[in-house]
Write a structure and sequence with these properties.
There is one protein chain. With 416 residues, the protein is α+β, with helices and mostly antiparallel strands. Helix content is 36%, strand content 23%. Strands 1, 2, 3, 5, 6, 7, 14, 15 and 16 form a nine-stranded mixed beta sheet that branches. The longest helix is centred in the C-terminal third of the chain and has 22 residues, at 296-317. The radius of gyration is 22 Å and the shape is elongated. The termini are close together. The structure holds (2S)-amino(hydroxy)ethanoic acid and manganese (II) ion (2 copies). (2S)-amino(hydroxy)ethanoic acid binds next to loops. One manganese (II) ion (MN) binds next to loops.
């Protein structure tokens, strides 16, 4: 990298303040955030991000999925841009940093390049991907999946939340349904900074994770149907208890995941029980089984054993059971060239670092299908995430953002 950029560092206080100003929008109940996708709070967060981008001289484009693309011109307007970003939507009990760090670190790169008057050949585009979390509208990484050609736009518009509202209507309602065709932009590369959401980097006292792979994900929605009846007057042998059936299937999920230790994981985070009344035997249980592993064959084995074992449990209990695949992606290997740019940046900056496989899914996992992609990770306290107590240090944010900047700027080619 040329001299003007060789020793560049971001403004850590400015990044830290931006993160905490964004956190004031859609506050949670315990210090974190509840800024779920295409809610009014999401719309407010988008407006603040757009204001900051325009103040930094960027031009904003918005596509049909609400993805936001804030462009800094390069010296070669025809060169495909380097994209950098993540997501601003959060879990209902989310932390302040999941996704937000990656979007605002992208903006901080622009602010730093402006301060230092550093120009690059390739334009740089800071990105906010819509509905990364998939909690209100499944699946996760919805918009980046449409962008990568994995999901159909109309299918995505039709996804429904628990109240029966559709994603497309809600995106329209908050005023962020753009005109740009999804997926038409050419990308020279895509980089994403994200908190690890796991314990490894902190435990090993490493400042930076050089993400080489992302483990695969499988979401199976299971519907168990029994018969509602009185919890007092229905004799035990006559009960068709969908809640008990769910409990036995969830225990099976745990056994299946443990059978593939140490890397596979499995659980259900979404559970709805009907009618959810204290004195009614549940007639229906709907839950989503989340299996993950770095190996595709392991994921496929876990999915099949869930179906076979779940059907056996239902048959033995006189219950009905249905399985629907509602999300997932194969294990991901990120682009060698981009991973090398990240590793070289960490080395050049003298930061402790290690290669790591991402345990969580990210927009980068889909974008990796259509453009050279890599990720940078920073530690998080106790590896905790998807919890309002999620915490990182300003130093970790600073080092992650510096590595991200050096990888992005090297790939965008500094001019003069
Ligand atoms: O589910 C995931 O891995 C991501 O946090 N949405
Ligand atoms: Mn995330
Ligand atoms: Mn998340």
């Amino acid at each position: 990298m040329s001299d003007p950029a060789a020793n560049m560092k971001i403004d850590a206080d400015r990044l830290w303040n931006a993160i905490h100003e964004m956190a004031e929008i859609g506050p949670g109940v315990a210090g974190g955030n509840n800024r779920q996708t295409v809610t009014d709070e999401d719309g407010e967060g988008r407006k603040l991000f757009q204001k900051w981008c325009e103040a930094a001289g960027l031009t904003m484009g918005v596509d049909e999925m609400g993805d936001m693309f804030a462009r800094r011109e390069g010296t070669d307007p025809d060169a495909p841009p380097v994209y950098v970003g993540s997501h601003l939507d959060t879990q209902p009990t989310g932390g302040r940093y999941d996704g937000v760090l990656g979007v605002l670190a992208g903006l901080e790169i622009i602010r730093t390049l402006n301060d230092l008057n550093v120009r690059t050949k390739h334009p740089i585009v800071v990105t906010n991907w819509t509905n990364e979390e998939g909690t209100r509208f499944a699946p996760a990484m919805l918009a980046s999946g449409v962008y990568a050609g994995v999901h159909d736009l109309d299918w995505a518009y039709g996804r429904e939340d628990a109240e029966g509202k559709t994603f497309g209507d809600e995106l329209q309602r908050i005023g962020w349904k753009g005109d740009e065709k999804v997926g038409e932009r050419r990308m020279h590369a895509f980089f994403e900074l994200h908190i690890e959401q796991g314990p490894i980097l902190e435990a090993e006292e490493k400042d930076v994770g050089v993400v080489t792979h992302g483990q695969g994900l499988s979401w199976t929605q299971v519907t168990v149907t029994g018969k509602e009846s009185h919890t007092g007057s229905t004799p035990m042998p006559m009960r068709r208890n969908a809640g008990l059936g769910m409990a036995r299937i969830l225990d099976l999920v745990d056994q299946i995941a443990w059978s593939h230790k140490p890397d596979a994981v499995g659980a259900a985070g979404h559970i709805d029980i009907y009618p959810n009344s204290r004195n009614v035997i549940p007639g229906k249980a709907v839950f989503t089984v989340d299996f993950r592993s770095p190996e595709l064959e392991v994921i496929q084995d876990m999915e099949q054993r869930l179906r076979d074992g779940g059907q056996k449990i239902a048959d033995e209990m006189g219950l009905e059971v249905e399985f629907e695949k509602v999300g997932g992606f194969d294990p991901v290997k990120f682009d060698e060239g981009c991973v090398t740019a990240v590793r070289n940046a960490a080395q050049r900056l003298g930061y402790s670092h290690r290669e790591i496989v991402s345990g969580a899914g990210h927009d980068a996992c889909w974008i990796n299908r259509i453009a050279p992609t890599a990720m940078v990770m920073c530690p998080c306290v106790d590896g905790l995430s998807h919890n309002e107590a999620e915490e990182i240090s300003k130093e970790w944010a600073e080092k992650g953002a510096n590595v991200l900047m050096h990888a992005v700027v090297e790939t965008a080619e500094v001019v003069g």
